[in-house]
Amino acid sequence: MKKVAVIGAGHVGATTVQRLAELNIADVVMVDIVEGLPQGKALDLLHAAPLMGYDINVLGTNNYADIIDSDIVVVTAGIARKPGIDRDDLLATNIKITLQVFAEIERYAPDAIIMTVTNPLDIITYSALRSTQFDRNKVFGMGGLLDSSRFASFIAREINCSVKDVRAMVLGGHGDSMVPLPDHSSVAGIPLSKLMDEESIERVVNRTINAGAEIVGYMKNGSAFYAPSAAIVAMIEAILNDTKRIITASVFLNGEYGLHDICLGVPVVFGKDGVEKIIELELSSQEMEALQRSANKVREGIAKIST
Ligand code: APR
Q1: Cβ of 228 below 6 Å from ligand 1
Q2: 84 CA to centre of ligand 1 in angstroms
């Protein structure tokens, strides 16, 4: 049985563990700093096993030693957004928390693949690579798949079609500077521009960019977790089953898209080795400029953690 560790037993972490259990795909260890929280949630999930028909093991713990031999470690530990607080405001607190978490992962699961989820995503992913000896194919951030799924969901609702037929792509930083790509999005192979007028596309693009904030605005005291956990699990499945799916993720760029020494969302082939290939799309000059603007925004955050 494969083993997945999830750090943080809050909304995103616990929902991820539930989805993993229901897929019956790996044994799961859930770690949190709060005593009793992961233990209680793990027990509750085990009680659901006879009803849901899964037979994987779920362990809740406060002890990082339990993540030993994990194939993948998902990092959701940290604070989430509230109204008026954007992802970058989370930086100071979450960088401290995740630096400790990365050190523990390096100590107990040095061969694992690390998926970061804690925001600000691209900066936290960069810090994971800079603060550890993990190879760049083994560290990436979950952001673009969530943004792409939100984009796809809005497109399907706009044109009243099945979400199953929508292919949507969002690149760039996982934040306000993200770059939805209507020209690389389609419905059953039909380009978006044939199905939606420019104004509707722009409306859907803007709603995608603000989707996280829209949810925080409703929820007040927390941020999204159903779609984030669904995206996390889709990426775990691609790695554990070595499917070679092409998924946008925040990865370290070393010249790709003309960018160096930064983590940013780009399309990637996922397989058993993690990030197996970075795909360089041919972007229009407008799209490339938007990607560069997004990179500049992420660099501002990286500068804050380097000083
Ligand atoms: N080690 C382990 N767990 C920790 C640590 C730590 N050092 N510090 C905090 N945590 C735990 C908290 O105790 C809490 O249970 O992280 C959990 C975070 O859960 P929530 O507050 O429910 O936040 P959540 O909605 O899950 O979001 C977590 O993911 O999507 C991002 O922006 C979001 O950065 C946020 C993260």
Answers
A1: yes
A2: 19
- Express each pLDDT in 147-195 by its tens digit: 999 999 999 999 999 999 999 999 999 999 999 999 999 999 999 999 9
187-211 burial code (b ≥16 CB/10 A, e <16): beeeebeebbeeeebeebbebbbeb
C-beta 225 within 6 A of ligand 1: yes
Which residue owns the Cα nearest ligand 1 atom 4? 77
Write the class of the CATH domain 144-306.
alpha beta
Please report which confidence band the pLDDT of residue 306 belongs to, taking 50, 70 and 90 as the band edges.
confident
Of the residues 11, 174, 184, 260, only one is catalytic, namely 174
Q: Which atom of ligand 1 is nearest to the CA of 77?
A: 16
Q: For 56-65, 87-96, 233-242, which range has the lowest pLDDT when averaged over its residues?
A: 87-96
Helix, strand, coil % (nearest 5) of the chain? Answer: 50, 20, 30
**pTM (2 d.p.):** 0.97
Tell me how far apart the alpha carbons of residues 290 and 242 are, in angstroms, rounded to a whole number: 32
Query: What is the fold of 2-142?
Result: Rossmann fold (3.40.50)
The domain locations on the chain are 2-142, 144-306
